[in-house]
Amino acid sequence: MIFNILSVFRELIKPSLKYGVLSKAIKRKKIKVNIFSYSDYLNDSDRMDDKQFGGEPGMVIKYKNASKAINAIKKSNPGTKVIFLTPKGKRLDNNLAKKMSKMGNISIICGRYEGFDERIIEQYADLEVSIGDYIVSGGEYPAVILMDSVSRMINGVVGNKDSVKNDSLNDSLLKHPVYTRPAKLKVGKVPKLLTTGNHKRIKEFNRQESILSTLKRREDLLEASNLKLEEREFLRKIKKDSIKSNAYLALVHYPIQNIKGEVIKTSLTNLDIQDIARTCMSYGIKKYYITHPVKEQRELAKNVLDYWQKGINIKNDSTKHKALENIEIRNSISDAIKAIKKIHGKRPKIVATDGRIMHNMVNYSDIRRNLDTDDSPYLFLFGTGWGLTKEVLDNADYILKPVGSYYEYNHLSVRSAVAIILDRIFGCNF
Ligand SMILES: C[S@@+](CC[C@H](N)C(=O)[O-])C[C@H]1O[C@@H](n2cnc3c(N)ncnc32)[C@H](O)[C@@H]1O
User: Fold this and answer.
1) Are residues 276 and 214 in the same domain?
2) 173 with 214: CB under 8 angstroms?
């Protein structure tokens, strides 16, 4: 595999070729590295960079000399794939490194300053690559990182093939912890099984440690990993047992806005009773409060509950109706808050929901993080009619961004909104 690297400071790249895996790969003729400098293609009077149009600070790599350099590299490397290093590129990961290791000849173009005149990229880039969501001052270190990760994927570069196969992030899993001698230290012992020589059991143990480590540190990776059915079930159980179950939900019928923005009470909807209860139960919501200030409406809700929970009906479908046990009927939002305060000894944080985009709305990931790290109970408020009033929204600790698509029409039923929102916050992705 041939790597051509074009950069401003080639001296930053050279030392990394003298050591470790890259140096061995060069000696074994698995890879060849040609280093080029922009300055080799400059006339004495030329500069390689210039001020950017538009007045923003920072210099930009000019088209003329960069294109001269890239044309020369392409000419001596027919068929080479031109890879620009830029924070705007496709994020480098093991899969991309593997794909690039099959390209045979790549030319890595490093930027500096504010980057490249866009027309250079438009003309030459086969691919733009970023080494991560952060900025370094130039493409030289990213080039070494790219070259190292791609080289490791080439057969024979890393002595033991299995060590690449077992690296973290293969199959979207993190590697299990590893240990060496001595087996006992004051600070801890190596798990006994690893010292027994029972390779079959060690393999199983390491696999389990690997999936557990991924759940703990990088749950997001599990979505793309190839887990066995029993592994998924095992992880789901562990995850479920670790969730702090302190989320509550209230369906609000007053104070609510109508289409004109006036404050109204809405009527109870039969479907909201059972459907939302079932969604709440499926996502571990501790209690579902139906709040209504009108006695007759509360009695209506109670009658519906009694109908399903008493007599012959409970025997018909006990699993579906079990969710109704989590319902409490209350007069108002503040009554629901009081009930939660009684359970937890502190006021819940209020998360209001709304179908409109407003200032200061929070992301789903923020609320998910809060629930993981904060011991406070959380009460999610869902409005009926045309939504919660301004006063309720103003008094909430958070207002969640609306769910929905890109279309102007956005009239999800509250039942649908509850399901989508709870899935975004409490849903399992593996
Ligand atoms: C200071 S950066 C320029 C960043 C530019 N102002 C921007 O916001 O996109 C200079 C050069 O370093 C390299 N570079 C910086 N961060 C990088 C990253 N995360 N991945 C790949 N290359 C990076 C690129 O070659 C880039 O052109």
Assistant:
1) no
2) yes
